[in-house]
Amino acid sequence: MIAELGHFALILAFMVGIYQMTIPMIGAHKGWHGWMDSARPAAMAQLLLMVLSFGALTIAFVTSDFSLRLVYENSHTAKPMIYKISGVWGNHEGSMLLWVLILALFGAAAALFGGNLPPSLRARVLGVQASVSVAFYAFIVFTSNPFWRMGNPPFDGRDLNPLLQDPGLAFHPPFLYLGYVGLSMAFSFAVAALIEGRVDAAWARWVRPWTLAAWVFLTIGIALGSWWAYYELGWGGFWFWDPVENASFMPWLLAAALLHSAVVVEKREALKSWTILLAIMAFGFSLIGTFIVRSGVITSVHSFANDPERGVFILAILAVFVGGALTLYAFRAAEMTAKGVFSPVSREGALVLNNVLLAVAAFVVFIGTIWPLVAEMVWGRVLSVGPPFFNQAFTPFMIVLAIALPLGSILPWKRATLARTLRPLRGALILTAAIMVLVFAVSTGNSGLAVIGAGLGSWLVFGALAELWLRTGNSGAGRLLRLPRADWGKATAHAGLGITFIAVALVQAWQSEDVRVAQVDQPFRVGAYDLVLRDVQRVDGSNYLSQMATIEASRDGRPVATLTPEKRVYPVQGMPTTEASIDYGFWRDLYVVLGDEQAGGGWAVRTYIKPFVSWIWAGSILMALGGLISLTDRRYRVAAGASRPVRRDTTVPAE
Fold this sequence. Notes:
Layout: H1 2-30, H2 33-37, H3 39-62, H4 69-74, H5 81-86, H6 92-113, H7 119-143, H8 167-196, H9 201-232, H10 243-268, H11 272-295, H12 308-332, H13 347-379, H14 387-410, H15 418-422, H16 426-442, H17 447-471, H18 477-481, H19 485-510, E1 512-518, E2 524-526, E3 529-540, E4 545-555, E5 558-563, E6 566-570, E7 575-579, E8 581-583, E9 588-597, E10 603-611, H20 614-631
């Protein structure tokens, strides 16, 4: 009965969405305030209905209601409770229900916090947001209904994919969806502005908090996915340029570009057309990512579904919304004239460079991702585009971006000179050079990569600190603490990016790997560490069987860690998994993977020493934290510019 109530609530939300996308839009066109105002209660009602629907599906998973086909195919009575709950979205149908729940959440948030928006703009934003929801309601109801019953319910289920039975994967999809779907608000604001023919500084201030929130959620989601791949898949890597990894990375790049572009619209009322286009394309790439994950046209370990019919439906949604928005953009682009004139050497010019680099980088990732599909469709050839292509094609844009960011952050608006701008960064330059010399002195192996990466990252970190000090006007720490939160947020995010640069370069340049057959009680050496395989025991888990090794690690005769890598088998699905054991450290990770037992005795053991690898996720946390700090700044409130004039000063919210 609860499942039927959830299904009914889903259909009611579908109907409310149809109302919300039509009546308020008509009211905005006619100037009928009652019709326009009805968008707000409709958005709240849609959220309430979706909470009921999603809650009903969650109850079905928690109570192991195997009469629902979705529960039967993705759960089991022996599964731990956290994975019963995460099983709700650990599949195609449930994840799409979460998708529309988050769409409704953002629509309700816009209705709740958009009270100071002009009534017609608010009605159109909520109408466009509802139209996106309606498309996905139709997708769920007609192709991906999570509430289908089975005529003869089985006694137990098939269990969730063992790779998804992990805390990292329990939280990774919700954060990604908050980012993906959050970009729908930027899209809705862009389309509403195109319909009204109004793109100005106030519009930029309205759209920036939604974009920043989506970017923060995407940052967290991508970092969680990277961390999960690092410790769960047993290959020791943090990024493989997998198509689904790329599907989340492309919107992240475009959202970052949109954040920086909106600054120029807000401060100088320039780049209006480009900013609107970025808002459309950022959400468009979120839809492209959804198509990649769910269509089956590109194979990936992360894919949810392999159904061409569903892929065609998503492709139709992509064509209607992105194609329609671009058509509207083509009609309105000539009206969005820029008011601010600026020199190439200026903050505006630096932000344009930033946008070009991020957008082209996203396009490079897109080409590399879809090229195998294009080659197969056009020439019938099966190709693989792997990390070497992406590393060589993508990295140069990031190098230029890292060089330009500290400079662009302190350039004056309208016009500037590079020589004068570099003066406050002399200290940052000296410290960066010192770090590069130090890294070169201690380098072993690929010193060029280590020196360049450490230099670029240090330049970003010290440049962010120099910018904060410059904002104080050299008046001391007291003024530093009184700086706007957005300034602190921007500096924190840029420093986080710098730390990630350092970590990626150093781990790739200095990491070491050892693969061998280890005999019990026979020591072997990896780098500066001595390791001994003591035994391998059978362990029975809650819903798996495991062979767990005990490996003692020491350095210079002093014990460092006892590592327990595993090889697991989940009997319900008959699927083996590898569980790495990692000794985490500030400067390095000691990473051990257990392989198969060998016919001649001993066990295959793979060992990695990964210097600075934890700094990758520390940098990601700092980037997300910087975004959150900026969101707390009063100037980031959704309707900050609705009733206040633009304040033109030298303090700029985080980009």
